[in-house]
Amino acid sequence: MRLTVNGTSREVDVEPDMPLLWVLRDELGITGVKYGCGIAQCGACTVHVDGVPVRSCQLAVGDLEGEVTTIEGLGSPDALHAVQAAWIEHQVAQCGYCQSGQIMSAAALLSENSNPSDADIDDAMSGNLCRCGTYPRIREAIKAAAQTIRSA
Amino acid sequence: MSRLKTITRRGFLIGSVALAGGVAFGAYMVTKPHANPLLEGAGQGDTAITPYVLINADGVTLITPRADKGQGAYSVQAALIAEELDVELDQIRVDPGPPSPAYWNTALADEAAAFMVPSGGRAERVAHGVLSAVMKTMGMQITGGSTTVPDGFMKLRQAGAVARETLKLAAAQKTGTAMADLRTEAGRVILPDGSSLSYMELAPIAADITPPQEIALREPSEWRLIGKPMRRIDIVAKSTGTQNFGIDHKVDGMVHAAIVLNPAQGGPMNSFDASEALTMRGVRDVVQITGGVAVIADNTWRAFQAASAIRFDWGPAPFPATMDAHWETLSNSFTEEFEDSRQRDDGDVDISFAESAGLISAEYRAPYLAHAPLEPLSAIVRIDNDAAEVWTGTQVPRFIQKNVGRIAGIEADKVTVHALYMGGSFGHRLEDEVVKQAAEIAVKMKGTPVKLTYSREQDMTHDFPRQIAMARMRGVVRNGQVDSYDLGIAMPSVVMSQMARQELSVPGPDSQIVAGAWDQPFAIPNHRVTGYRALQLAPISSWRSVGASSNGFFYNAGLDELIHAAGADPLTERIRLCDDDEARKVLEAVGEMSGWDGVLGDGRGRGVALTQSFGVHCAQVVEVTSTDAGIRIEKVWVAAEVGTVIDPVNFDNLVKGGVLFGLGHAMNCEITYTDGIADQSNFDTYEGMRMHQCPVIEVRGLENGARVLGIGEPPVPPAAPALAGAIFAATGTRLREMPFSKFVDFA
Ligand code: FES
Ligand code: FES
Question: Are residues A113 and A146 in the same domain?
């Protein structure tokens, strides 16, 4: 089975019902995407498929249509995405485990809407749990990233 | 003799150890007055060297032995060392683990957390009581009790200062320059002519120099780092998906394992049938472990899938099957037979009650709660014939050495523990079941690293949750004031449950049964707090703020009812009753921040609470609105007295996180048991707070106290009672049991 992840075509030999999450983590060694619940409740596994945020724990790899982007493909320490830069500037992370998913959800929101209201942020982000309670900083960072994107 | 006294009071001495090509500076902890290795010969079993600064050709590494579970401990510890060492935080590496296994094991072996449970005033009476005694006896390196900051504030700065002065001595020796003409900056010793020597090149010389001891620490006015916003050392990695967490870690040749234990936690396994699982793709084996079985496969998901294909015959749980029976046990515990402590008994509540016609009474409940850090537990263990290695995120590396050593049949010091980054803990990683289980598998396949990953369901249903607890309050008001307050609290002993799993018993009363209640800064004329130790029920463990997590609610909720009966204002009456200057300033701060002025109207309401826990007075005002969709938490104002705020950014983040942790669980979380099986197994039934419910939070750190205190836990206890007070003010509904979602809806 072939899939395109972060712009690279990859070959995997797996059951079609294996969730994309585990194909990425265990078969391809892409660990920025996290396992938190496995039942679409926490958002830690959020990736983009053709730019749309998807819970990769819920997507059987056999049903995948489109190109996958994980946080590693969004930006890197040397080439940060605007959302990642805002996350660093606002020092959002505590344990950091939820943050890949938070950033992927936020990036998807901002690609659709570069001037989100608080209600827009609530709608886009309420599927992403943060057990450490970094929500206030996530909200600030999204607004800051939106500003950067608008003025770019 | 006077020198010995100084040293003993300070509790440690700095020494250096020469390593191949480098030098390490550490602190010799003095756990007993006469057990100092520098005074009585090095290498004694009951003292230890903790290396904090390692300098070799590779650079400067700061050793931060307290685990980072997301609270920024690595950064804070590094900053304390760097403040005196004169290195920049982007010049150094931070390592929680062994720079050299042989060297570090000595450190791990005996470092006593002698400063566990820091607390002031009344609380100091228990500070050196049960818990710290246990810690000393076990001599373990442990992260907990918000102790990282208080424990490290002196020690780490001293280590940095001694290393700096030793490096200057090395430079003086090498160049023939007078010490007084040398200064240090950014990892270099600067000579009078402006040229400089790096710490790295000086390290081999420094290794032969006896470190000076009496070095005055810099005054707060000279601090470069402490008190200024810092950039966490892990912030880039955690914003780019490049942070390696325990669950992400790989070791060459490792296999993946999943386990199934009796869903009735701790119950026996009568039989199992793994025939179907064994035919599934990627499955290597199914082996029996304590209380269940493990599947070994070539991928995490395949291990999970195969685990759910095994059929079992389980026995019953070793604790009561229904919640009614758990509550009944607590209800029956308010008797002399179960009395554990009565640390507070001011005035005479009995006489006061006898003389009063209007006795007020109420009962409160707090449920079991899962820790549920977002990263499920995992561990990699490899066992060889005479050594073992463990890779995991943990707060208790010493227990792991002991337990893996026992399972592998080797000495504890032959077990190397690599402490990895943790995706949260909240006390979860004070337990080491996942490591023991991985070791039980690994010992059956020697030489192969076994990575055990918990499913979320395994993690939640087999957590050792927060204690279940019940409180009964009676009180009397007179002339518009609170006159008598009698609070009894019943819970099983957390410390006993937790230590029993490490085959340790704890003598004396369990101070956690009354923590956050008996030692509160209120002078009520007749005031009594009694702890009742209920029989052990479901196994329980320390959950962020431990006893105070339930008792902060009980104490403040009871007080609120009395204040209401007296017709007084919840904030004004607390301030009037307060007998501690620092605490009063904390209450006044939230009053000022929130513009507290009584009733709000329009379905809005405010509540206030203060809890002293771990020596920190933390007060919160919560404001809610009652809407058609339910209660909306609008705003929280929070103030805490911590002596010195080391990093204002991290402080702000931790306080907000603690408030949300307290509010989220109070809103809608509980673990309940049916037939001895946990009813909640994932975040669909254990939600906590989400973004759309998150209030605006305003934080203020007060620095009036002399002691430097940690802030990881203290914001949790006052959140729930402040929320309950706000809901009462907005709706007239008095909430006496958590979670509040059993009685009100949240928008
Ligand atoms: S792991 Fe996919 S939503 Fe939680
Ligand atoms: S930062 Fe820990 S779960 Fe969000």
Answer: yes
| Domain map (residue ranges) of chain B | 9-105+140-239, 246-316+377-453, 323-369+464-538+548-742
d(CA A136, ligand 2 centre) in Å: 12
Strand-by-strand arrangement of the B22-29 sheet: B12-19, B22-29, B48-56, B59-63, B92-95
Respond yes or no on whether the N-terminal peptide bond of residue B51 is cis (omega within 30° of 0).
Answer: no
pLDDT, tens only, B655-698: 999 999 999 999 999 999 999 999 999 999 999 999 999 999 99
**Overall domain count for chain A:** 2
Residue among A23, A57, A97 whose CB has most ligand 1 atoms within 8 A, to mutate: A57
> Is there a single domain that holds both residue A116 and residue A60?
no
Tens-place pLDDT, residues B293-311:
999 999 999 999 999 999 9
What does the block give as tokens for B519? 């030692």
Instruction: Determine if ligand 2 sits within 6 Å of the CB of residue B186.
Output: no
Looking at the CA of A20, name the nearest ligand: 1
Chain A residue at shortest CA distance from B280: A15
Q: Assign domain B323-369+464-538+548-742 one CATH number from 3.30.365.10, 3.30.930.10, 3.40.1620.10, 3.40.50.970.
A: 3.30.365.10
pTM for the full predicted model: 0.90
Nearest ligand 2 atom to the CA of A131 is 3
Chain B residues close to A95, C-beta within 8 Å: 69-70, 373-375, 421-425
- Domain of A61? 2-73
The tens digit of pLDDT for each residue in B335-346 reads 999 999 999 999
Report the C-alpha gap between A73 and A80 in whole angstroms.
10
Ramachandran angles phi, psi of B252, nearest 5°: -55, 135
A66 and A125 both lie in a single domain? no
CA distance B108 to B397: 8
Q: Which residues contact A79 (CB under 8 A, 6 or more apart)?
A: none
User: Chain B partners of A99 at a C-beta cutoff of 8 Å?
Assistant: 238-239
Ligand 1 atom with minimal separation from the A43 CA:
3
If DSSP codes are grouped into helix, strand and coil, which group holds residue A126?
coil
| CATH number of the domain to which A135 belongs | 1.10.150.120
CA proximity to B503, closest of B403, B644, B652, B635: B403
When pLDDT is cut at 50, 70 and 90, the band that residue B125 belongs to is very low
Q: Which fold has domain B246-316+377-453?
A: Aldehyde Oxidoreductase; domain 4 (3.30.365)
Q: Looking at the predicted complex, does its ipTM rise above 0.90?
A: yes
SS3 of B465-481: the string is CCCCEEEEEEEEEECCE
Q: Judge contact between B559 and B482, C-beta under 8 A.
A: yes
The matching CATH number, chosen from 3.40.50.720, 3.40.50.2300, 3.30.365.10, 3.30.70.3040, for B9-105+140-239 is 3.30.365.10
Judge: B240–A96 Cβ closer than 8 Å, yes or no: no
Interface test with B, best of A59, A132, A134 (most B CBs within 10 A): A132
- Asked if B653 lies within 8 A of A137 by C-beta distance, the reply is yes
